[in-house]
Amino acid sequence: MEKRFELTASSEVLSPFRKELRQILNQAGWEKKTAEEILLAADEALTNIIRHAYEGKPGTMTVSVLTDEEKIEIVLEDRGKKFDPTRVPSPELPRHQPGGLGIHFIRTIMDQMIYDDQGPAGNRLRLIKHKKKSEKGR
Amino acid sequence: MKIRSANQGDIQTLELSGELDYHSSPELREKLTELTAKQAPKILVDLGGVEYMDSSGIATFVEAFQKAKRYQGRLVLAALTTTVRGVFEIAKLDSIFEIAPTVAEGAERLGAKV
User: Fold this and answer.
1) What is the pLDDT of residues A71-108, one digit of tens each?
2) What's the number of domains chain A is made of?
3) CB 3.0–4.6 Å: which of A5, A127, B28, B62 could bond A98 by disulfide?
4) What is the pLDDT of residues B1-18, one digit of tens each?
5) Model's pTM, two decimal places?
């Protein structure tokens, strides 16, 4: 199954998007705990686009969600400033200062975080997670 | 996100409900900044109604915690849902914050008479 979302790069879209993604994850048979974690990873990636790629300026974000028996792949695309989260070093934990945890969350939760260079402008980030045995065939 | 403020003796309580993310965390930050600016000695945050929290929520609490620490104030987080607790665990912050299983226990830890 594939579903595509065209979103405005604004924090107001986060909650409605999570609602849609939660539904997709439930239908695809993910356990609640893992589903909530995947939601968090996607939310952090979108927040990074709003904050770092568009720096709060208007823009659009496209999210494609691909699910099958084995895995979920979430592809996030934007036309904002270059921002490669895979190059951000892992923070030392626990952090005693606010911030810097979003990318750590994505790395911890997802099996793969792949950044595709989109040429002169924009970013494309792919987040992949494989199902556990107990989640397959549900 | 809804925030309800209350007083219980010298304990300032914030009861949160809804989702705490990049969109809603500025409102919470404002409330916590108000409390830490007037050096509220004991702050109790009831997270029982929070179904979702992201790193913006965590950052808001880390900031308030650091500010309170500077004036020897205390910040206790109470009644975390499994989802929210999981976020603190991924951030390895569950050992840094004072976390109480229930609001009553949180208040007790802050010296409230029960």
Assistant:
1) 999 999 999 999 999 999 888 888 888 888 999 999 99
2) 1
3) B62
4) 999 999 989 999 999 999
5) 0.94
Helix axes A32-48 and A14-27, enclosed angle (nearest 10): 150
Using the beta-carbon criterion (under 8 Å), do A96 and B62 form an inter-chain contact? yes
- What contacts A46, CB < 8 A, 6 or more positions away? A7, A13, A14, A17, A61, A63, A76
Mean pLDDT of chain A: 93
A78 and chain B in contact, CB less than 8 A:
no
Inform me whether the pLDDT recorded for B114 exceeds 70: no
State which amino acid sits at residue B113: K
Residue A6 structural domain: 2-135
CA nearest to B26 within chain A: A11
For residue A47, the model assigns a pLDDT of 97
A-B CB pairs within 8 A amount to 74
Q: Do A94 and B92 touch (CB under 8 A)?
A: yes
Identify the structural domains of chain B with CATH numbers, from first to last.
2-109 (3.30.750.24)
Q: Which of B23, B55, B95 sits opposite A11 (nearest CB)?
A: B23
Quote the CA–CA distance of B38 and B36 in Å, as a whole number. 5
The reported pLDDT for the residue numbered B65 is 96
Q: What is the CATH number of the domain that holds A106?
A: 3.30.565.10
**Chain A interface includes B33 (CB < 8 A):** no
Q: Smallest CA–CA separation between B114 and chain A, in Å?
A: 33
